[in-house]
Amino acid sequence: MNNFTFFNPTRIHFGKGQIAKIKEEIPANAKVMLTYGGGSIKKNGVYDQVMDALQGYEVVEFNGIEPNPHYETLVKAIALAKKESVTYILAVGGGSVIDGSKFIAAGSVYDGDSWDIIQTSGACVEAAIPLGCVLTLPATGSEMNCGSVVTKASTKDKLSFKSAHVHPVFSILDPQTTYTLPKRQIANGAVDSFVHTVEQYITYPVNAKVPDRLAESLLLTILEDGPVALEDPTNYDARANLMWVSTMALNGTLKTGVPTDWATHMIGHELTGLYNLDHAQTLAIVIPAVWKFKKQQKREKLLQYAERVFALHQGSEEERIDLAIQKTEEFFVLMGNPTRLSAYGLGEKDIPAVQEKLILHGLVKLGEHGDITPKEAGEILKLAL
Ligand code: NZQ
Ligand code: ZN
Q1: Rounded to whole angstroms, how far apart are CA atoms 195 and 301?
Q2: pTM for the full predicted model
Q3: Any residues with Cβ below 6 Å from ligand 1, and which?
Q4: Any idea where the Fe-containing alcohol dehydrogenase-like C-terminal domain is (predicted)?
């Protein structure tokens, strides 16, 4: 087990009726910027619950934060936050709204050009406006981590930053807010949290039993409850389990003491930036191909995965690994996310642009061994045509 430092300051309020807790969290004299996306929260009653909890506060609204939040949109929110002297940000929505709000929180108190935040991967961030969240789409874990992914639409650059200053102070997770998710987003949430888990699990063994067994429990839960949520959208227990899974999958717990991969995410971000696939759609394509390409290096963990997650005990090692990869692909497809580039009209001709973006972004040594260069990334994508 490797050394690690673990710290997570976000307070979670989980369950029915918890949106009312906003007023216990945000100081009464705060000037609150309420940030949200394209309007789903107005249709499903979440906006009304939030506004009820915000009675008595001075509130400024900023809406229209799009999926894969655009820098061009977020700078408008930063200008508004500065003009209105906002002292608290409340993000209500999915990962895009929360990520965008992290950028707004940091950018609103940063003196220079806010794109510096991305270009320094967050190193230039010395402060941020405090942030609270009401999560409506369990997927990214952004509600309990310090990462954010922002897209500069004009150049198709999708890049991330991290800063302890943008860790949400609190996040409210009411599974009922997820009842209105379209099937596409249920699928995306399940696949994203699944892939967060395996990016921190399917590497090489270091005898770290706690994160390994936690990862296995999260994977089994997604396999069980993902299909239930698709079939029975108002099944509270399934929604609740999926919501806590997605938070746990990327709040820092799973990486304690283990190596991590993240090649799939980095390649996937380029696919989204260039070709506008949803984040989880890219992951379902890339991760099976990474495993096929890295089968030897990941052999022991793939075998552990085959045995403990899919109960595959028969056949040769090769057969068990291949079957585990196949079962993973079948699960993604069952949820609604194809595992081939061709499903989105993409082919071999579209791969060089991904490699060029990886080079441009300095993402030239990916994976737990740092040995996936843009050349290997191209080979990986060829396995997913
Ligand atoms: O904009 P609105 O109208 O709210 O609609 C959204 C959006 O169209 C809709 N939606 C959300 N909650 C809903 C709902 N529709 C009905 N009912 C609800 N309860 O869903 C659509 C997609 O939302 P989005 O926030 O884009 O999805 P997601 O949560 O999957 O976030 C994806 C973004 O997060 C980044 C991704 O790269 C992508 O940009 N990630 C952030 C991470 C992090 N901060 O740690 C890690 C992840 O790996 C990921 O990279
Ligand atoms: Zn992800």
Answers
A1: 15
A2: 0.98
A3: 37-41, 44, 67-68, 93-97, 99, 136-137, 139-142, 145, 147-149, 177-178, 180-181, 185, 188, 192, 250, 265, 279
A4: 187-357
Specify the DSSP element, H or E, that contains 239.
helix 236-249
Domain residues for the domain of 145 are 11-177
Pair (304, 337) in one structural domain? yes
Structural domain ending residue among the three candidates 143, 177, 211 = 177
Q: Answer yes or no: is 1 within a domain.
A: no
Dist CA 192 CA 189 (whole Å):
5
Would 244 be classed as within a structural domain?
Answer: yes
Q: How far is the CA of 366 from the centre of ligand 1 (A)?
A: 25
The per-residue pLDDT for range 102-123, each reduced to its tens digit, is 999 999 999 999 999 999 999 9
Spatial contact of 46 and 63, defined as CB atoms under 8 Å apart: no
Per-residue pLDDT tens digits for 344-378: 999 999 999 999 999 999 999 999 999 999 999 99
Q: How far is the CA of 93 from the centre of ligand 1 (A)?
A: 7
Report yes or no for ipTM above 0.95: yes
State how beta strands 131-135 and 88-93 pair.
parallel
Site of tokens 């190193």: 123
